[in-house]
From TrEMBL:
One Gene Ontology term of the molecular function aspect: alcohol-forming very long-chain fatty acyl-CoA reductase activity
Pfam families, alphabetized: NAD_binding_4
This protein's UniProt keywords: Lipid biosynthesis, Lipid metabolism, NADP, Oxidoreductase
Name listed for the protein in its UniProt record: Fatty acyl-CoA reductase
Enzyme Commission numbers on file: 1.2.1.84
Annotated GO biological process: long-chain fatty-acyl-CoA metabolic process
Signal peptide per UniProt: none
PANTHER family membership: FATTY ACYL-COA REDUCTASE CG5065-RELATED, MALE STERILITY PROTEIN 2-RELATED
Reactions listed under catalytic activity: a long-chain fatty acyl-CoA + 2 NADPH + 2 H(+) = a long-chain primary fatty alcohol + 2 NADP(+) + CoA
Length: 455
């Protein structure tokens, strides 16, 4: 692996990899920098492009914590361990920009806009990713924020590239999705008028029918955002839309299997590995559109370079998914279970096994018998015995059902190695479980096998 110092020399001399040389001296603005994608984006820029200019991170007040304090907290992320160890000075390139994507003008004052005048590249990954956020909130955070961001971009004289992060499912109702922007499911102006006219209670009742055939407000708002970007008159910078599929733990960087949230497949890994989830509503033979986070970020870095170099007047679209080495949900499930049995989690609830069924009624029956009833009984017995649980098992059951409902729509190099790292990374980085506990966890796993056989 090239060190920061070696990379800096290559970039300065105009030698070595192309992207580090191109990013040398260029300042970057990042929204969503504290998120899963954002942290890896910052890490890849600091580590692989050592001569990169300042990285401006848009941050808002959150839970009483001001932006500057949040930036210092961000610098302590485990994602930057290699940077801290080998080239800690790189983290000094991070600059806080106090703002909020949910506010007019992104909440930026004149001083903040002046701070950004040297920015060459903008990566916009901030969004609400709740699948069934209210329509008003989803549009406000995922669409109106894009308009405000492009207004800002028009004021940045040195801007060369804007990269907007969308989703591969923005047109999920289509069988074949090309790398182009499709017609808007609704115009932003009309949506704003509807939101102003309808009371919230009525709007909530009508939302599912209004956004159909889009499966949820997240996908709907992302599709509207894409069309809004495409309809925007072109300025002095190039624009691209990157559509990653289901983003999972890292393949290699910052560490194999690095993960930090329970969204999507990582929730599946935890639920299955802990012996909590035993039924999924999915087509086992369908392709699982999974892509490691570091591959997604490397794609974004290359996209910014390409559109800035080509200076295309049209919005470029890039579908980012595992086309060359796909995996089915059956293979993913089998690898997760195999890895979870080899590297078992602490405090195992039951022996890890799951059934995947496409028929919704069969799935509901299995969920009731294998998950819902056992968890409710276990919760009841724990209360009788005076055992204090960190989280009610009834609540766990409800959350597992909600997770399955969300994933069902999307589920109707060497993946063996990656899934093993996914499980190990979930254990280490997400659940904070120590590798020293694996022998003890294996003993618990062996006992659970005996209990299963006795049943």
């Amino acid at each position: 692996m090239m060190s920061c110092k070696e990379g800096a020399m290559s970039a300065a001399e105009g030698e070595g990899p192309l992207l580090p040389s191109w990013y040398a001296g260029r300042s970057v603005l990042i929204t969503g920098g504290t998120g899963f994608l954002g942290k890896v984006l910052i890490e890849r820029l600091l580590w692989t492009c050592p001569a990169v200019g300042e990285l401006h991170v848009l941050l808002r007040d959150k839970r009483g914590q001001p932006p500057r304090a949040r930036l210092e907290q961000l610098k302590q992320s485990q994602a930057f361990d290699n940077v801290r160890l080998h080239c800690p000075g790189q983290l000094d390139k991070l600059r806080v920009v106090s703002g909020d994507v949910a506010q007019p003008r992104l909440g930026l004052d004149d001083a903040a806009i002046l701070q950004l005048q040297e920015v060459s590249v903008v990566f916009h990954s901030a969004a609400t990713v709740k699948f069934w956020e209210s329509l008003e909130t989803a549009l406000h955070q995922n669409v109106t924020s894009v308009v405000a961001l492009m207004d800002l971009c028009d004021q940045l004289p040195k801007l060369e590239a804007l990269v907007h992060v969308s989703t591969a499912y923005s047109n999920a109702e289509r069988r074949h999705i090309e790398e182009r922007v499709y017609e808007a499911p609704a115009q932003l102006a009309g949506l704003r008028a509807m939101l102003d006219a309808l009371p919230p209670s009525l709007l909530d009742d009508l939302t599912a029918r209004y956004i159909a055939p889009k499966p949820n407000t997240y996908v709907f708002s992302k599709a509207v955002a894409e069309a809004t970007i495409a309809q925007r008159p072109r300025k002095h910078y190039a624009t691209a839309i990157v559509r990653p599929s289901i983003v999972v733990s890292s393949h290699r960087h910052p560490f194999p299997g690095w993960i930090e949230n329970l969204a999507g497949p990582s929730g599946v890994v935890v639920g299955s590995g802990k012996g909590l989830v035993h039924a999924f509503n999915l087509d086992l033979d369908a392709r699982a559109d999974l892509i490691p986070v570091d591959i997604t970020i490397d794609t974004m870095l290359a996209v910014a370079w390409e559109i800035a170099t080509d200076k295309s007047p049209e919005v470029r679209v890039y579908n980012s998914c595992s086309q060359q080495n796909p995996i089915t949900w059956r293979a993913f499930r089998d690898r997760v279970l195999r890895s979870a049995r080899t590297h078992p989690f602490d405090q195992l609830m039951y022996y890890p096994f799951t059934f995947g069924v496409k028929n919704r009624y069969v799935y509901k029956a299995l969920e009731l018998v294998l998950q819902t009833i056992p968890l409710h009984i276990a919760d009841y017995l724990a209360r009788i015995c005076g055992i204090k649980l960190q989280l009610s098992l009834v609540t766990v059951s409800s959350r597992l059902q909600a997770m399955n409902r969300v994933l069902a729509f999307f589920a109707t190099r060497d993946w063996d190695e990656h899934v093993t790292n996914f499980v190990k990374g979930t254990r280490k980085y997400l659940l904070k479980e120590k590798d020293d506990n694996i022998p003890r966890a294996r003993k618990m796993l062996e006992r659970s096998v005996v209990y299963l056989c006795l049943l």
